[in-house]
Write a structure and sequence with these properties.
Layout: H1 30-34, H2 36-46, E1 50-53, E2 59-62, H3 65-72, E3 78-79, H4 86-89, H5 104-115, H6 118-122, H7 125-139, E4 144-146, H8 147-152, H9 154-164, H10 171-182, H11 188-211, H12 217-222, H13 233-246, H14 249-263, H15 266-274, H16 279-289, E5 294-299, E6 303-305, E7 308-310, E8 315-319, H17 320-323, H18 357-374, E9 378-380, E10 387-389, E11 395-398, E12 400-403
Parallel strand pairs: 2-8
Antiparallel strand pairs: 1-2, 3-5, 4-12, 5-8, 6-7, 9-12, 10-11
Helix pairs in contact: 7-9, 7-18, 9-10, 10-11, 11-13
Bound molecules: protoporphyrin IX containing FE.
Length: 405
Amino acid sequence: MSAFSGQRLDKIPAHVPPELVYEYDIARDARMLEDPHARMHSLIREAPPIFFSPCNGGQWLVTGKKAVVDITTNPALFSNSNPGGQKEATAGLSLLPISVDPPQHSMYRAPLNQMLSAKSVAGLETAIRAMTNELIDKVLAAGRCDFLPDIAEPLPVTLFLKLAGMPTNRLAEFRELALQAASATVDPETRAGTFKRIAGILAETIQARQEKREDDLVSRLLDANLDGRNPTFQEMMGYSILLFLGGLDTVVNALCFGVRHLARDQELQAKLRADPSLLPGAIEELLRLYGVASLPRRVTRDEVFHGVQFKQGDALLLLLPAANYDDAAFPNPEQFTLGRTEQHMTFNTGPHRCVGLNLARLEMKVFYQEWLKRVPPFRLDPEKKPRFAGGFTLALTSLPLVWGE
Ligand code: HEM
C-alpha cells in the first residue's frame, strides 16, 4: 500500500471487490514523489491492471496497456466529456476537441489534423532552432543551469506565442500563467481565476484576428470549416486554451525527464553526439520510458469490462506512464532500448491521440540536436537533487545540471 495523505472515500462503493482496491494518491504518494517512473513501474507489478483507489475522491486507475487501449478506443462506454470536472477548472469553457466524444469529435479535430500535420509544422523548424539557441546562449558559459526554468519552460511557451501569433514580450506573463494552470497543488478557485486570465488574453488575440487575419494558427482556425460553418467565438476560445495547455506542461516535462536520463547516461550522450541520426529513435524511447500525462474518463453505463464491474458515473484515470512499463508489450520495460517496434502510450491512442505530436517531436528533435552539439557532456548537479511532482502530469520541479568542470 502506498503512503496516503489526501481526500479519500470513507466507504468503498459496493460494486468494487476488495481484491481490486489499492491505495494510490496521484499527487501525494511518497514513492511517486521519490521517483515517479520507478513508482509507475512498481504500480504495474503490484496492483491489478485496473484497480480502485479510495484516494482523490475514489476512482479506477488503469495501468495495463491493453486495458488502456481498449478504454480509449471505446468512447461510447468511456466518455471524455468533462470526465474529471475540467469544465469547473477551466471557468466553464469546453476545451476543444478534447472534451467532445465521437462522432462530433471528428468535426472539431479535422482542422487541427491539417494545421499540425508533419508537413505544416516543418515550417517552424528554423524558429524552434533559433529559440533553442537563444536559451542555450544564456546558460552555456556558466557551466550550469536549472534546466526547468532556464530551458524547458520558456521553449514551448515561446513557441506557443509564435504559433498563436502573440507578441513574445508577453513571455514572462504567459509562463507564470502556464505554471499556475499546471500546478497540482493550487486550489480550484485560484485555478479558475488563472483560466479566466488566460481566456482574457486569448480573447484579445481572437478579436484582433477577427478584424485582421495574420499568418498564425488563430487566423487559420477562424476560417476552419466545421461542417459548413466557421467556429463560434466560444469554440475559438475552447481551441485556443487547449492548444496553450496541451503543448506546455507535456513538452516541458518530457524534455526534463529525457535530459535527466541523458545526464545520468554519459555513454548514451556520447553515442547521440557521435551519430545524431539516432535521435528520432532515442526520443521515442525516452518518451516511452518517461510518459507524463494521465487521462481522465467517465463510465457512461453499467457494464462489465475486462472482468471489472463498472457503474455509470465511475471516474477512471488512465496511467499512460505505467502502461509504458507493461512487460506484455515492452520486454525489459525499465531498460532504454533503441529500435523497439511496439507503439508507446505517451501520446495515447484512439480518437483523442495527441494531435500535437508532430510539433512535440520536432521541438524535441531540434532541441536535442542543438543541446548535444553545443553543451559539453553534462550531468546532474551532485550538490542539488532533482525534485518531482505528481497529479495528472508527472513533473520535475527542478533539474540542476552542470558541465565542463
Ligand atoms: C511531449 C509532448 C506531448 C505529450 C506527451 C502529449 C500528450 C497528449 C495525450 C496523452 C493526449 C490524449 C488526451 C486524451 O486522450 O484524453 C493529447 C491530446 C492532445 N494534445 Fe498533446 N501532448 C504533447 C504535446 C502537444 C503539443 C505540442 C500540442 C499543441 C500543439 C498538443 C495538443 C494536444 C491536443 C489539442 C490534444 C487533444 C486532441 C483531441 O482531443 O483530439 N499536445 N496529448
